[in-house]
Amino acid sequence: MLHLRIIVPTDRSAEVLDLLSRDPAATHVIVLPGAARTPPGDVVLCDVAREGADEVLDALQALGVHRSGAVVGDGVDVTLSAAADRAIDAAPGHGTDAVVWEEVAQKTGEETQLSATYLLLITLATIIAGIAVLLDQPILIIGAMVVGPEFGPLAALSVALMRWRPSVIRRSLLALGVGFLVAVVVTVLATWALTAAGLINESMLLAERPITDFIWRPDALSWVVGFLAGVAGMLAVTSNKSGSLVGVLISVTTVPAAANAAVALAYGVFEEAVGSAVQLLINVCAIVLAGVLTLLIQRLWWHRVTVRRPTPPARRMPAVLSPRTASRRPEATNASDPAAFRP
């Protein structure tokens, strides 16, 4: 489930409560009149089944709650509640299949920042992969794939293209372009430095490398693997399956291709550098295309699931009292009276 903390102006609380009362996916509704200070207003807490969370968030935004107040969501790991079970049963589909679009957009949007940490990670991964292709070592290749942070901008680019967010598209392309450029340049310099130190040499690049030779020889299977990895990666992002994402990172030849191109450039082996660059481009395009198509299919399929859900009658919820009104109300003496628990 998803836990929502909603701050809403006091005069708009009734609208929010009416919205939550009509949605069977929402439960555990708690109202704290006048509890919010910045921004001022009432605080409404509730839990929402992931299957219906996207509709609730869209409805809250349609009310303008995010402009005059705030909506904050957190995942709920443990829930022991019959009311929660009823909400999950009433919501359409399965929670593992549900896509909370705002969650996905914010999660992937954070990966588009061209930060020092991002540049350092992609550079280190490329240098490690450069040494790996020279040594023809698959273990180092796998390690470089896991360290590389490039799937974040690729996923963000897919989401931004599907939802058409030009600003996120620009940031994603900038992170990818600058990131790989910096990584290649630094790897070229590192290759020259290691060569001068006598640790590596050009003959290692020109020698037979049966394990890593595929990196600069793209073929039809390169596109197939990249496309399948893009589908799996997007499913891992939308369903919070981080374990699956690790497998995706290991299956795509992005950082290794950039590393092979850098090493080949350092030694002047331009044919291999071009082949590696083509391999990188194929994988990037395949992942993004697969990501966009996966998201489109998920949206269309989930739309068909949600339109079949009947609209239940509204549940009765107590009116929200402002602190001033609540102070005028006679003190409740019955412990079962909800007013006894109001501030």
TrEMBL record:
Residues 313-343 are annotated as: Disordered. The lineage of its organism: Bacteria, Bacillati, Actinomycetota, Actinomycetes, Micromonosporales. Pfam families: DUF389. The keyword Transmembrane helix applies. InterPro entries: DUF389. This is DUF389 domain-containing protein. It comes from Plantactinospora sonchi. Keywords: Membrane, Transmembrane, Transmembrane helix. The chain crosses the membrane at residues 116-135, 141-161, 173-200, 220-238, 245-268, 280-302.
